[in-house]
């Protein structure tokens, strides 16, 4: 858990959560609109969706330390190369392409694969603790990156971020990355195995079979709208707050507080997923996101935004671990990388439109208010899909397509 915590902390913090910090400086330096800069995340979403099935297959077949090292190199060199860009198209290539390869190679697929392999009875808690690193990265790294940008300038700041990522992750990968407990004579949940170590069962699901299951589509319609809401709010929040007259550092503290409660929610909702009805726990996460958006619309003061941050943070924090738990619960750990790799392209359209749509509405209306209002409809879609999803006590077997 500790290893996947750090890996996701660095990758998600520097690539995803800090993008809101990058938005204004890059738009000013490259002399373009926020909408044009936000298209970088759409390109990133397309790249992630296109390569995710291949990355998932490689993680199922190739030595995990090699894959993680390659991903770290892509992330580190991509971030450092950001210091050299002069045109918007270069931003799309470097960040939307190269950095995206590092992101997909270091976050959901390898982290959840390791946790699905290593944990069974306490899988929800394990995924919650691991993904605590995702949310806490916003609480820690958004203020740090903001300070680096203000102190060193954005070009030097990108070099520092990329170098730090490589120096921290590569040694950890070669010290701690072990794909399955059977490789070191253990069983899931850390118990000693009475049998000799053996290789895991072969993956039973194909990409095409996954696309033919109703469960995968319903999970997509639950998680996708939540991801859209998270991206729309978190990544526009620094600009939204500063447009209201709140200082840059205070705006970063709103994002940080959102992330702190998102981190807490990952552990709390992960524990609840081990003990309560899984659909009820997912519904709770969606409800808190809706309430957070409503509070954000009703409160435009710094103090009011802090209250909204607490509520929205608790809702958004559960989305990532609950997504992984739903997939592992429905399909089993042997098929997990294939199913997750298939599901990521299905989620791509939500990430593709999230921030660009939000900033397009801003460009048209001069405010983020209508963009936030529209999120309510997406959350209604997620609730309807959740109501239709049959949560299973045993993983779905190959051939059960309905």
TrEMBL record:
Residue span(s) of domain Major facilitator superfamily (MFS) profile: 1-394
Transmembrane segments: 5-23, 35-55, 67-85, 91-115, 127-150, 156-177, 216-241, 253-273, 280-298, 304-328, 340-362, 368-389
Domain of life of the native organism: Bacteria
GO molecular function term, any single one: transmembrane transporter activity
Gene3D superfamilies: MFS general substrate transporter like domains
Record keywords: Membrane, Transmembrane, Transmembrane helix
Any matching Pfam family: MFS_1
Protein name (database record): MFS transporter
Lineage summary: Bacteria, Pseudomonadati, Pseudomonadota, Alphaproteobacteria, Hyphomonadales
């Amino acid at each position: 858990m500790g290893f996947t915590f750090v890996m996701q902390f660095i990758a998600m913090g520097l690539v995803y959560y800090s993008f809101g910090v990058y938005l204004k400086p890059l738009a000013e330096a490259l002399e373009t609109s926020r909408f044009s800069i936000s298209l970088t995340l759409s390109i990133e979403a397309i790249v992630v969706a296109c390569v995710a099935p291949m990355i998932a297959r490689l993680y199922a077949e190739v030595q995990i330390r090699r894959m993680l090292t390659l991903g770290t190199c892509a992330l580190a060199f991509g971030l450092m190369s950001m210091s050299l860009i002069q045109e918007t198209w270069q931003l799309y290539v470097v960040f939307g392409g190269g950095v995206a390869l590092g992101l997909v190679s270091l976050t959901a697929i390898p982290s959840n694969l390791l946790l699905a392999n290593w944990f069974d009875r306490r899988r929800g808690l394990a995924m919650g603790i691991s993904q605590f690193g995702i949310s806490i990265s916003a609480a820690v790294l958004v203020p740090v990156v903001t300070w680096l940008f203000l102190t060193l300038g954005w070009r030097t700041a990108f070099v520092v971020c990329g170098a730090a990522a490589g120096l921290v992750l590569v040694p950890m990968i070669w010290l701690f990355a072990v794909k399955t407990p059977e490789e070191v004579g253990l069983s899931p949940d850390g118990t000693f195995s009475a049998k000799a170590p053996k290789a895991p069962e072969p993956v039973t699901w194909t990409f095409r079979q996954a696309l033919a299951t109703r469960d995968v589509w319903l999970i997509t319609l639950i998680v996708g709208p939540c991801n859209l809401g998270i991206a729309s709010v978190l990544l526009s929040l620094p600009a939204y707050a500063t447009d209201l007259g709140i200082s840059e550092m205070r705006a970063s503290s709103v994002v940080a507080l959102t992330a702190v409660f998102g981190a807490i929610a990952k552990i709390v909702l992960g524990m609840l997923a081990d003990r309560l009805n899984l659909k009820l726990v997912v519904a709770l996460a969606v409800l808190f996101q809706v309430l957070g958006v409503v509070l954000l619309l009703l409160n435009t003061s710094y103090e009011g935004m802090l209250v909204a941050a607490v509520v929205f943070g608790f809702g958004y924090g559960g989305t990532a671990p609950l997504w992984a738990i739903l997939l592992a619960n429905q399909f089993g750990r042997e098929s997990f990388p294939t199913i997750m790799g298939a599901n990521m392209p299905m989620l791509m359209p939500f990430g593709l439109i999230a921030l660009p749509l939000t900033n397009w509405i801003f460009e048209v209306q001069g405010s983020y208010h209508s963009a936030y209002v529209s999120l309510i409809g997406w959350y209604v879609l997620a609730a309807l899909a959740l109501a239709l999803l049959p949560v299973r006590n045993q993983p779905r077997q190959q051939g059960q397509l309905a």
